[in-house]
Amino acid sequence: MKKLFLLLVVCLVLGAAAAWWGLQQVHAPYRGYADAEVFVDVPTGAGVAAIATRLADAGVVSHPLLFRAAARISGKERTLQAGEYRFAEAATPAEVVDRLARGDVYTRAITFREGLTIWDMADAFEAAGFGTREDFLAEARNPARIQSVDPDARSLEGY
Question: Over the chain, what HEC string results?
Fold first, then answer.
């Protein structure tokens, strides 16, 4: 009986130590990538485990379980948003969870001067490195994005 009690005490102490260590790791900044920045794409519908694996593979978090723990502890595991995220500084798993929950995605701006045709815009889009001219034209010809505003629109030209 004494040995069982001692074993229980040892297990409790080890469990408490592991919990303390894990909590420290969730709040410890980490940067495991050598480049100046790293981009991580979170696809629509990805679960916490898949997101955690992508982040760990990119060197944003040290281990997928730490990210999953941070998401669970924060209560934000169901609010993580899809998109492309840019990481350039060391961050804690908790900070990474907050960024993904806010949807703090990486954006790049492009400005089209007034008077350009859809074809001129497609050329500028491609020249800026955003994608191909054909991709731009395909999206610009798809009025689905503005159907709620203008149900009769046949393209995005002029919007």
Answer: CHHHHHHHHHHHHHHHHHHHHHHHHHCCCECCCCCCCEEEEECCCCCHHHHHHHHHHHCCCCCHHHHHHHHHHHCCCCCCCCEEEEECCCECHHHHHHHHHHCCCCCCCCCCCCCCCHHHHHHHHHHCCCCCHHHHHHHHCCHHHHCCCCCCCCCCCCC
